């Protein structure tokens, strides 16, 4: 066969693959509706295990890489779950025409929440300094008023703190929550609202605005003095597969200083060292290793994020300096061990780290 003939044959196979995927998705939709009407959970881990096992078994029988087959099936499963999750959220329609105001709703995470609420049947109003006044759109949130069933504060951290303080004086009737990555700048506003008798709580989505499937993702609920508000907020996400975690105001920022602050700083230090090394990025890429490539992938993602938000996460956390000091101490310790030729100390450092990391169970999906 000529090359063109082989490529045409391959094109035909690819078309059939896409047709089979479409057929599979149709069946998945019917399965999702059946789960919804019978009250069964969206995700069935036992079934996923069977599907992936069968894919690997069939791949071996056909002399195909089992890892490739599993990877393809895992992608199809994620797509199916995302579709079923969206259908369930829409079907349960908890909004039922209720109104929600998203302050900062034109931002990335604000946009995610706007879509989430709209899919549940809420009447969504957006207030954001980057937009012009229009139908259910306001440049200044004050112009929208506070007569809403739900108010979400999705502005930058420092601004969110001021908004919460203002809302405490306005005493809105509905549920109010922020989605800040830190709570230190928001504590005063949250406490003022609680003291004023407002139905207020605080959320921290541990996922980004590009997230379509909430399975394996975490959403932190921080009680701000109104257990009823926290309970109501949690119910809004009951149709999703997100893992709900509860935390108090005192613990949140101390733990986030390591989960976000330390991990961000480590990656910023990594790409800063590379950028200032004098070595061209393409040249380093040619000498890549598995570890380097993995670290570069994460650091590249961090470098593309909002630098102003990342500075706020570092600067506005009252517990933020401790993890940075620990990072500096650790790097200096490694440097000293290497400079002194202390092999035993270096090995012990890695052994200790291995033991610590072994105590952490791997999550089902990255956070």
Distance between the termini: 48 Å
| Poorly predicted tracts of residues | 362-367
Secondary-structure-derived class: alpha/beta
- In terms of quaternary structure, the protein is single chain
The run of helices and strands is HHHEHEEHEHEHEEHEHHHHHH
Number of strands: 8
Any idea what the CATH architecture of the largest domain is?
Answer: 3-Layer(aba) Sandwich
Q: CATH top level of the largest domain?
A: Alpha Beta
Biggest sheet descriptor: 8 strands, mixed
Which value, in Å, is the CA radius of gyration?
25 Å
Helix content: 55-70%
Domain Chorismate mutase: 1-88
Protein name: chorismate mutase
Keywords: Oxidoreductase
EC number: 5.4.99.5
Describe the structure.
With 367 residues, the protein is of the alpha/beta class. The protein is 60% helix and 10% strand. It is globular, with a radius of gyration of 25 Å. It has an 8-stranded mixed β-sheet with strand order 3-2-1-4-5-6-7-8, sandwiched between helices. α7 links the parallel β5 (175-178) and β6 (200-205). The relative contact order is 0.07. It has helices at residues 3-38, 45-61, 66-92, 108-119, 141-144, 157-170, 187-195, 227-236, 249-275, 281-286, 290-303, 307-315, 321-339, 343-358; strands spanning 99-103, 123-127, 137-138, 150-153, 175-178, 200-205, 218-223, 243-248. The model is unreliable at 362-367 (pLDDT under 50). It has 14 helices and 8 strands. α1 (3-38) crosses α3, α6 packs parallel to α7 (187-195) and α9 crosses α13. It has 3 domains: 3-91, Chorismate mutase (Chorismate Mutase Domain, subunit A); 94-250, 3-Layer(aba) Sandwich (Rossmann fold), CATH 3.40.50; 253-358.
């Amino acid at each position: 066969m000529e090359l063109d003939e082989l490529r045409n044959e391959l094109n035909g196979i690819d078309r059939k693959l896409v047709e089979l995927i479409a057929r599979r998705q149709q069946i998945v939709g019917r399965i999702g509706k059946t789960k919804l009407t019978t009250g069964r959970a969206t995700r069935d881990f036992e079934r996923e295990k069977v599907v992936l096992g069968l894919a690997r078994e069939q791949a071996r029988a056909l002399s195909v890489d089992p890892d490739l087959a599993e990877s393809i099936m895992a992608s199809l499963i994620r797509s199916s779950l995302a579709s079923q999750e969206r259908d369930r959220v829409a079907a349960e329609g908890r909004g039922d025409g209720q109104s929600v105001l998203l302050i900062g709703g034109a931002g990335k995470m604000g946009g995610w929440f706007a879509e989430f609420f709209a899919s549940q049947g809420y009447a969504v109003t957006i207030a954001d300094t980057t937009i012009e006044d229009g139908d259910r759109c306001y440049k200044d949130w004050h112009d929208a008023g506070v007569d809403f069933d739900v108010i979400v504060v999705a502005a930058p951290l420092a601004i969110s703190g001021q908004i919460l303080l203002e809302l405490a004086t306005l005493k809105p009737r509905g549920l109010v929550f922020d989605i800040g990555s830190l709570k230190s700048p928001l504590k005063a506003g949250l406490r003022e609202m609680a003291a004023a008798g407002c139905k207020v709580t605080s959320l921290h989505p541990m996922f980004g605005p590009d997230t379509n499937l909430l399975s394996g993702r975490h959403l932190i609920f921080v009680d701000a003095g109104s257990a009823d508000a926290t309970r109501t907020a949690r119910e809004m996400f009951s149709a999703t597969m997100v893992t709900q975690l509860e935390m108090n105001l005192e613990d949140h920022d101390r733990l986030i200083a390591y989960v976000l602050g330390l991990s961000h700083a480590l990656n910023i230090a990594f790409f800063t060292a590379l950028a200032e090394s004098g070595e061209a990025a393409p040249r380093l890429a040619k000498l890549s290793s598995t570890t380097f490539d993995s670290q570069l992938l994460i650091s590249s993602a961090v470098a593309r994020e909002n630098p102003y938000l990342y500075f706020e996460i570092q600067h506005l956390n009252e517990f933020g300096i401790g993890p940075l000091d620990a990072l500096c101490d650790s790097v200096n310790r490694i440097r000293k061990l290497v400079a002194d030729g202390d092999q035993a100390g270096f090995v012990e450092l890695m052994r200790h780290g291995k033991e610590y990391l072994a105590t952490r169970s791997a999550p089902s999906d990255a956070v």
